[in-house]
Amino acid sequence: MKSHDVRVHPSSDNLPREAQLAWKIAEVASEQVQVTDAVADMVVNRVIDNAAVAVASLERGPVVAARAQALQHPVSRGGAGSTVFGVGEPTSPEWAAWANGVAVRELDYHDTFLAAEYSHPGDNVPPILAVAQHAGRSGAELLKGIVTGYEIQIELAKAISLHKHKIDHVAHLGPSAAAGIGTLLGLGTETIFQAIGQALHTTTATRQSRKGEISTWKAHAPAFAGKMAVEAVDRAMRGQTSPTPIYEGEDGVIAWLLDGPDAHYEVSLPERGEARRAILDSYTKEHSAEYQAQAWIDLARRLGGEHPQLKDPQNIVRAVLHTSHHTHYVIGSGANDPQKYDPTASRETLDHSIPYIFTVALQDCSWHHVDSYAPERAGRADTVALWNKVTTVEDAEWTRRYHSNDIAEKAFGGRVEIDLADGTRIVDEIAVADAHPLGARPFARADYVAKFRMLADAVLTPAEIERFLDTAQRLPELTAGELAGLNVTAAITTHTSKGIF
Question: Is CB count within 10 Å lower at the N or C end of the chain?
Fold first, then answer.
């Protein structure tokens, strides 16, 4: 990897394109590098993972609405069209990216990478796949495009914090998806450079979408970034240019949205010819909840089994979760969001409340993507009583481990201290989720397949489940005509109240 110093330059510097971060990203994207076997296998895993969580969300309101919007748009005349998840009817690629992006993100149940910034790099797949289907590209070309999307988003997340300045993390997704589409289509550096600039410019937004009462837009935000990436690439292919320098300009992203005119970022990108391996540093979710909750769910399940008395709020004085800065201030009591303790809060809010999640996992010794969020489950009197005794605090060591670049010590858990009414105390800790590559039960292909079968069981026919799994596991060898097989069809609702379209 090569480290690039990225800082603000006044317009008088006339910073050459070749010295700009967007150009350096475009150089990576325009180089066709062989994909290693391990990376190819992981791409297949994540395509299966995306499909699993999308299938499980097909009847949820945001997904139904996004699908209905997409299906109001005909296939654009420049290609074969792109499939919308759950139905056989094609639409234009940007609208397929939109509908499928919402389906993938709705349950907050797919892969993650956490560093200076947060990310769900699997969000790159819907827009890249939609363009591949529309443009008649092969599975091998799709594979390279997805690898680029992961590589760029993960490297940006390692280096540049957005949330520090209350900018939503999808600002890294717009550029990464544009870069991945560029690789897929074999575009030149100049075209990809322009697309990256436009994609970044149109996908910066505040983090209010993940604060307070979290709305249905949480699932739409990454889908919007993917849709903007498709449109940005289309414009760039037609010779349209973007704000330049988009990162380094004196009125650019760094100067006014991030660390300011004196900022320096060190962004690492692959050397010329170097294999792209960043996807191997990411990890998926066993449970449908914010990633920082994954390890806490595993610990709570274990504690509930080992100490049944912890399930009764009358036995508990307090439970304090000592954890990282992010977990405390974003999904913990440090957020100072009363909604995180509200039994009538939305599902989107509850899956960003670690006090709620820890309480339910402790009492149930399990976690379910639907049942654990049901209104009747959240409103149970004993749950509400115990929930209000769970708080979080930041622990400097867990914050350090959260931000560590050493994968062997990077951690997303913490230590819990539970004071009981009888004067005793139970203390335990967990560093990473059981499904993490360094966890108790790291996810492998069989686990991804099992997750798909579990989530698809009540939605798809057995024949459709087997057909999809066979197609997905042959992804690197698929012909252009077979890429539509990476979709599934189900008996689902496609209509909502009428909008403009």
Answer: C
